[in-house]
Design goal:
By secondary structure, the protein is of the alpha/beta class. The chain is built from 11 helices and 8 strands. The longest helix has 18 residues, at 207-224.
């Protein structure tokens, strides 16, 4: 167990931060034998688990890490099939429930009985599945820019669902997985989306903050469109196959749900529904925010999270 120096690009272009010296890379074994890579940092006794988005890694959590690392131990892991974690023997073992099992394996490896889960995007579904499966392990939930399931039924549909779209998207994802050379070309062309995303952030976060975020956005695009691109396509389908909607009323852990009104990937009405269904949830809606609320509006998001941890989490 040795300290890492690159921390998945977390420091971007600003130079090394104090917390980076505490980062350690470790591995755990999931129940099905898949080896899971994870990282531990911070100096506190209480534990926070960061459940990544589909593509984001440690670098995507900059505001949270900078605010919390002195008071909490922070754990995050690479989803199976992505980055430093192994791919499972069967593609069927990329389901959301398996990612929740991986999180439990990591907590057991670290001797952690109870933690707050902070999930972003895909991490919202993973965190909710974990909370429904292992409620005794959850001290609280912070759910950022996510949904309760069936992502292709609402993704890219910010105002209302289009009935025929999910099947068309599945057909496209199937075809791309069967034609990997074409998928590679599309991945390269998709880098063009970086510019409009940056321009959107100029509106949501302001030009200065957008420039600070820009290196992280480039790293995010590198991750999503990199060697694991085909697994990303499959994971989109697993996220669509997954739902905990029927379980939300039984998830009694205190929860803070945060959404951006300009979020196209996981529209804000999904967050409202999560908060409505959960018995102990509070919803915060950000008018000037897209799918990257923590990075765009840390001056609002981080005080909300800090207050939640101090007043509502049940470590």
């Amino acid at each position: 167990m040795s300290a890492r120096s690159d921390t998945n690009g977390a420091h971007a272009s600003r130079g090394a931060a104090d917390w980076e010296a505490t980062v350690q890379a470790r591995r755990a074994t999931a129940p099905d034998g898949t080896r899971i890579a994870y990282e531990v940092l911070g100096s506190g006794e209480r534990t926070i688990v960061l459940a990544n988005g589909l593509g984001g890694r440690l670098y995507a959590w900059g505001p949270a890490i900078e605010a919390l690392w002195r008071d909490y131990r922070i754990i995050t892991w690479d989803y199976r099939g992505l980055f430093a974690s192994d791919s499972p023997a069967s593609q069927r073992h990329l389901a959301v429930s398996h990612h929740a099992d991986d999180a439990l394996a990591v907590l057991q490896a670290e001797g952690v009985e109870r933690a707050v889960f902070i999930g972003w995007s895909m991490g919202v579904q993973v965190s909710l599945d974990f909370a429904a499966s292992f409620p005794e392990r959850v001290a609280g939930l912070v759910l950022l820019n996510g949904t309760h399931g069936h992502v292709l039924s609402t993704g890219f549909q910010p105002l209302f669902s289009v009935p025929f779209l999910p099947k068309r998207l599945h057909a496209l994802l199937d075809w791309l997985q069967d034609h990997r050379d074409v998928a590679g070309h599309i991945a390269r062309v998709s880098r063009l989306m970086e510019t409009p995303t940056y321009l959107m952030m100029c509106l949501t976060a302001g030009p200065r903050r957008a420039r600070e975020i820009s290196p992280l956005l480039s790293r995010y695009m590198d991750d999503v469109l990199g060697p694991s691109f085909v697994n990303f396509l499959r994971l989109f389908q697993e996220l669509d196959a997954h739902s905990v909607y029927h379980l939300l009323r039984h998830v009694e852990a205190p929860a803070l749900v945060i959404s951006g009104k300009l979020d196209v990937l996981t529209p804000a009405y999904q967050s409202r529904e999560i908060a409505r269904r959960m018995p102990n949830a509070r919803h915060v809606s950000l008018a000037r925010s897209s799918h990257f609320s923590m990075l765009e509006r840390p001056e609002i998001v981080m005080p909300e999270i800090a207050s939640f941890l101090d007043r509502r989490a049940t470590f």
